[in-house]
Design a protein that fits this description.
By secondary structure, the protein is mainly beta. The chain has 2 domains: about 10-300, Methylamine Dehydrogenase, Chain H, CATH 2.130.10.10; about 320-400, Macroglobulin (MG2) domain (Immunoglobulin-like, Sandwich). It is built from 1 helix and 35 strands. The protein has one helix at about 1-20, and strands at about 25, 40, 45-50, 55-60, 65, 75-80, 85-90, 95, 105, 115-120, 125-130, 135-140, 145, 155-160, 165-170, 170-175, 185, 195-200, 205-210, 215, 225, 235-240, 245-250, 255-260, 265, 275-280, 285-290, 295-300, 320, 330-340, 340-350, 355-365, 365-375, 380-390, 390-400. A 4-stranded antiparallel beta sheet has the order 1-28-27-26, with no helix packed on it. The radius of gyration is 21 Å and the shape is globular.
Length: about 400
């Protein structure tokens, strides 16, 4: 009997220790044991940009990394839309890949400043934020670039709520309501204008400044208030919102977490031995941090309060969630939000663009929705699902694995 009790105690102890170990950040194997300036993900693909060695790719949650064909470049930003991957390079302009980084082509026609800090794709329009020359935009996937009226300023980061477009610059935050053609400053109450990071969390716009902490606006930047209680480091370099949670990456203070829209913050640095955070992203399983030394990851389930909660309130804007689970067999769930009464279509396509299924084709009132897709009649592979309502169109990728 004593032996059984001892074995049980040992099992409980091992379980407890394993959970402590798992409840930490762990360093991934790559990409180059150096600075990781930017991160992006789409489905099973995870990409990391570096300041001298180009873009790396991982297809196993960052466990292993391989270089893409974009090498020996200073990559400052990455953006993904469907199969299109864009890299903003300092001194190299914008590079475009249509096959998840296997091949790249430079697209700089009309881009009079090739020192690109930030890139974003919205409604099939590509935006490039440059050093000292403002914002350029392209309506043909980067083949040609057009300057906007925002110039003579360095653009560090973009953000969007699906309708409006925001730019974080060395002179504060700017707003565009016409897809980046015209911009206006939005800095009332923003006490530090060196905005390095932006996030949209429901109806809130969150700005992270370098040396000034975090600010929140509930009116598209018309006014700002501090949102940094408990934030012990004011040098914000990255912001990420997932579900109802906010994650902040700082220079010198590691990673912070807020579950109340920035009203209060706490550190989540367990196991993280490096404090300089340059970039953040997340998938269905992990939060990833690009640091001054490699990519680190931590399970989402340890941190977030509402990552897969269907009740997450998104009805103030249109939104299409990543399906869950993904990969899946044979069924998966898709969540989306509609902000007003609209005709909604949600369709599934194969990799050749052939329509496989129509999941939704009807008028929907404002609210959050979830639908199940059963793919028992389909073969294993990659599929795409596309939500369209009015001017809003968004496509995501899912993987069926039988």
């Amino acid at each position: 009997m004593k032996k059984r009790i001892s074995v049980l105690i040992l099992f409980i102890f091992i379980f407890f220790i394993n959970n402590i170990i798992l409840a930490q950040w762990t360093q991934t194997n790559g990409p180059n044991n150096g600075v990781v300036t930017c991160l992006a993900n789409s489905g099973e693909y995870l990409f990391a940009g570096t300041p001298g060695n180009g873009v790396y790719e991982s297809t196993n949650n960052g466990t292993n990394w391989v270089p893409t064909n974009l090498t020996n470049t200073d990559v400052r930003s990455l953006a993904i839309s469907d199969t299109n991957l864009y890299a903003g390079m300092f001194g190299g302009g914008v590079a475009h890949s249509t096959n998840y980084g296997a091949n790249w082509i430079a697209l700089n026609s009309g881009l009079t400043n090739t020192s690109v800090y930030s890139v974003l794709v919205k409604d099939n329009i590509v935006f490039a934020g440059t050093f000292d020359s403002g914002v350029f935009y392209s309506t043909n996937f980067g083949t040609n670039w057009i300057p906007s009226n925002l110039n003579n300023v360095s653009v560090s980061v973009f953000g969007t709520d699906g309708i409006n477009l925001f730019a974080g610059t060395g002179n504060g935050v700017y707003l565009s309501t016409d897809n980046g053609v015209n911009w206006e400053p939005k800095n009332n109450g923003l006490n530090n204008n060196a905005v390095q990071a932006l996030a949209v969390n429901g109806s809130d716009l969150i700005a992270g400044s370098y040396g000034g902490g975090i600010f929140r606006s509930t009116n598209n930047g018309t006014s700002w208030s501090p949102a940094d209680s408990g934030l012990t480091n004011s040098f914000i370099q990255a912001l990420l919102n997932v579900g109802n949670d906010l994650i902040a990456g700082t220079y010198g203070g590691g990673v912070f977490h807020s579950d109340d829209n920035g009203i209060s913050w706490r550190t989540i640095n367990d196991g993280l031995t490096i404090s300089d955070i340059y970039s953040l992203t997340a998938d269905n399983n992990y939060i990833y941090a690009g640091t001054g030394n490699n990519v680190w990851r931590r399970p989402l389930s340890e941190i977030l309060t509402a990552i897969n909660d269907p009740a997450v309130e998104r009805v103030n804007r249109f939104y299409l969630e990543q399906n869950y689970p993904n990969p899946f067999n044979p069924s998966t769930k898709i969540q989306y939000a509609v902000s007003s009464n609209q005709l909604v279509t949600l369709k599934v396509y194969n990799v050749l663009g052939k329509e496989i299924a129509t999941l939704v084709n009807e008028e929907k009132s404002a609210g959050n929705y979830e639908i199940e897709f059963n793919a028992s009649h389909l073969s294993s592979g990659i599929y795409f699902y596309r939500l369209q309502t009015g001017d809003f169109v968004e496509t995501r990728k899912m993987t069926l694995m039988k």
